[in-house]
């Protein structure tokens, strides 16, 4: 820096200019690169966790200036708000957050039943129930209501990203972002692209996942993406082993724990996830991809769901359950 330039800098607003330059240089989320306003649709099991995780990153690192959490029904909205508040209070009690940090986190979220509040969002994550027709209608509406630059992202675990993208009327600005439960703890996010997805929209989504503290893995729009494409057929094969009488429930699970190093066996996991969820996913795949031999529905799975033996959530599946505590295997 020349002396005359230095003199003007030192006697003028140079120090403040340098401070601004430093903030821009070292900010973890440059304004031009971030999704300034985030929308989250649905505050159930997954949606409230996504909103909380994004709000934590917004409060700490400025990833977002604001987050709009939307539900159609006031009672659902209140329930989602309570879930976030309860989760944050637990972090404060465990001294993982200060009270000030907790309030800063909560202050980033605006809760609303007015869908118009999403119209100027830069990025919208949808986490409503797994009903393709319902999602397609939602995206058709959002495509007309939101600004052209808004990128849409579905948190579906098994439905077609391509079909939703086409329904939105802006398939180039549509991705999948599959989080895992509980969102606040699980690091993985599957980030899904279709043949229509704009590379810039996809890259921005990958960067966003990293900014909120997740590990993003990339995948094309294929049934089940990565995790469920490997996991659900594995659970089904375990069920088929038991259905044929090849092995007992206990021995199947014990084999995968001790032989493959899994933290829990596949039948235990199927119960934990919910047998109705397993059936829903596999029936959808069988319908949409009848030539795929890995996609099959065991008779015993359908029978158990018909009897409301859904696993942990109903107290009985392949095991007896007392709340979250697994009991002995059932008699088949």
Task: Give an account of the 3D structure.
This protein is of the alpha/beta class and 332 residues long. It contains 13 helices and 10 strands. It has an 8-stranded mixed beta sheet with strand order 3-2-1-4-5-6-7-8, sandwiched between helices. The chain has a two-stranded antiparallel ribbon with strand order 9-10. Helix 3 (47-61) links the parallel strand 1 (37-41) and strand 2 (66-70). It is globular, with a radius of gyration of 23 Å. It starts with a helix and ends with a strand.
In total, how many beta strands? Answer: 10
User: Which term fits the overall shape?
Assistant: globular
How many H/I helices?
13
Strand order of the largest sheet: 3-2-1-4-5-6-7-8
Largest sheet: 8 strands, mixed
Mean pLDDT: 91
Secondary structure class reads: alpha/beta
Determine the N-to-C terminus distance.
82 Å
What level of helicity do the residues show?
Answer: 40-55%
Task: Chart the SSEs and their pairings.
Elements: H1 3-11, H2 14-26, E1 37-41, H3 47-61, E2 66-70, H4 74-93, H5 99-107, E3 109-112, E4 123-126, H6 132-145, E5 151-154, H7 161-168, E6 174-179, E7 188-193, H8 199-211, E8 215-220, H9 227-244, H10 249-260, H11 266-273, H12 275-288, H13 299-306, E9 319-322, E10 325-329
Parallel strand pairs: 1-2, 1-4, 2-3, 4-5, 5-6, 7-8
Antiparallel strand pairs: 6-7, 9-10
Helix pairs in contact: 3-4, 3-5, 6-7, 9-11, 12-13
Keywords:
332 residues, alpha/beta, disordered N terminus
